[in-house]
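for the writeup, i need someone to sanity check this before i put it in the appendix. the sequnce is what the collaborator sent (i think, or maybe the updated version? ugh). structure was predicted straight from it, no edits. if anything looks off just tell me and ill rerun, i have time this weekend
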Amino acid sequence: MNSSEAPHRSVYVVLPAYNEASNVGAVLRALARTGEEAGMIFRVIVVDDGSRDSTADVVRSHASLLPIILLQHPSNLGLGIAIRDGLLKAVDLALEGDVIVTMDADDTHTPSAIVDMVRRIDQDCDVLVASRYQRGSKTIGVPLVRRILSRAGSLLVRVLFPIEGVRDFTCGYRAYRASVLRQAVDRYRAEFITQEGFQCMVDLLLKLRHMNLRFGEVPLVLRYDRKGGKSKMKVFRTACGTLILLCRRRLGL
């Protein structure tokens, strides 16, 4: 992509949200600032996964800052379904040269990493992961148990299903070429994303692993100290779900 084309390229940011009224506004404001400073066009797709608070109202109140599409589930269906619906909407809207990003709506991910990921995609990658295991990464306020389980899970996946360029398999903060996700949707169809919980992010990487893509990572700054409210992740349930998923994939199921 040359410089004359860059201003016309859009970055679709998919935000799955469940009871994030206290956080999603800060995320949308940060995205608007980052996009303006970087000269990038951010188009946000918020998937309100059956929130019982005012998440949807907060999202609507920020519609003047940047283009926002709000998808609403009538009940909480889980992260996997929220990610799936957001990605399918982004694939449907994106042009060939666009980039699709997934990140959390709880204000723990810094939007500035999007700029680095888009630049890397322009240079030499199809899929970029914001990784906790790259030089320059920081994790602030993350409970020790969660850090240990995340590292153990990533190590296990690297042993069983190595992907060149990837060390962090569980982080949901990623950027994809829109054309790559469109190919994945066409290839897997109803099986594109089938996991309901947080292990859906591992499963998506395992599927993309079969597509002869170029993967990479950028450092992640994870700010749990800015998060309002409790984490939605059930740590041990997610760990067990991920382990079951890996066993099934290893057995070819």
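The two ends are 39 Å apart (CA to CA). The beta strands are 10-17, 41-49, 68-73, 99-102, 127-131, 138-140, 174-177, 215-219, 221-223.
thx in advance!!
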